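Suppose a classmate hands you a notebook page containing two proteins, each written out with its sequence and a corresponding row of structure tokens. How would you begin to make sense of it? This section walks through that situation. The first entry is reproduced here exactly as it would appear on such a page.
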Amino acid sequence: MFAVRASSSIVAGAALRQRASLSAKKFNPLASYVSARPVAKQRASFSVKANNAEPSADGEVDIWRDTPVRYMGYANEVGEAFAAFLPGWGVPASYGVAAVYVMLDTVDKGSKAYKGEEDESQKVKRGAIVTLDTLTWQLLASVFWPGSFIRCVVNATTVALALAHVPELDVNGVDIVKFIPTIAGLVSIRFVVKPIDSTIDYAMSTSVTKALNGKIEGPADAGIALATIGACLALPPALFTLAAAIKEIA
């Protein structure tokens, strides 16, 4: 029993470390704003990298990105993987932990943008833009998209094992087969991180980020932006619905 739990803990830890190393999130809600400003005024904004796990260029330690605190953002993915072993409130609680992390990181990035803006008349606007941009990106890329994908993987693995009539594999009174869906969910984290981050990066640059920075040009551009963010928001509910349908098959 102890060996099985220890193994699961090792797999969970390895998955989180792998995600942390892969998730050097390049999306920067200040990018389009900084590039348009004179060189002399760019320095104050460079340290605000809302979704980048790399240390700041100026050496400042970002507690939300450069320390173990960032693992809070992965709580929901681990919660989805361990759903079969958690009480009813376990998975929602894991989303709560991730949501708290997202909110704290969002406030931090918005505050830095506000303080880094040299034009007093633009401080509130800049802070609001970065706050909304960061919040949207984080909720999509760090919470709802990966969580819905992991749930599909876990449920699909569970159903596949049931349909294949895989026999129990008893080790010290514990059925090892029951841990396979959890392991599949944890392992899949490393494979969904980069595709999700890249997709949300592109989607944000053509929709929310573009709109917040006043870069929408004409009805066609606005239509593309609305369709893009609409699709991003619709995917998680669709995947959660699919996961529920898959679970009913078992």
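The notebook's second entry, a different protein, reads as follows.
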Amino acid sequence: MRYFIFSALFLFVANYSNSISLNRLGVPLTYTSKCAIPLFTVLFVICLDGLQALPNAVALCSLAFVALGIAAASWNSPSLDTLGFLAALTSATSQAALNIASKRAMALSNTSGTDALRVMVALAFFITATFSLVKYILPQQQQHPRQVSSIVVPSSSSSISSDDCPPFALALLAVVAYHIEYCLSFMFVRLVSPLTYGTCDAVRRLIIIIAGKQMFGGPSFSILNKVGIAAALGGALLYSRAV
């Protein structure tokens, strides 16, 4: 279990910051920004393994399209939010670190992808529970301390409204979909390099961006934003074919 501590931490940060970005930026810009995962992966690989671990020149050049595409997609975008954009980049950085850390942890522990996922989810759940306790529960107890002679009943204004929570069926569907996605991802990450894994899901991002735009709508993108989205996704696809 000790091999997966950092992987679980990266898993928590990647998903927590991704939820912030989705709330503030929306689906298209969030997943376009996450095309920066190959860039961060290259930086991590250079720091950990040196220049000899880098892919060929064509693959590296394709990463320039990714960087320029992200800049163009976010330039003067009507839905650009600074905090949301930083959260998206934080999620991309954490995802790149997760790809590398989880692959190394599975190699060191000789663990299969599903077993590794089980350990990381358990550790990430502990991190999430601790974070929720510190952020939400303890402040409420300080505002409404327990009385010795009487029981304090929270008022309706301080209680959590059911409108703040998503429908149970929708939340359950999201949990199942996330679980299946991560099971398949960690089965695949064991078979390829972190750089390849970080870019081969460009088609998945494209489907998410298109589907999210159709389902949730929002402000229309400018021509520059559309070119940026296409360049970022195209750069990720070019990288996948070059390595």
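A careful reader of the second entry would note: The chain has a mean pLDDT of 77.
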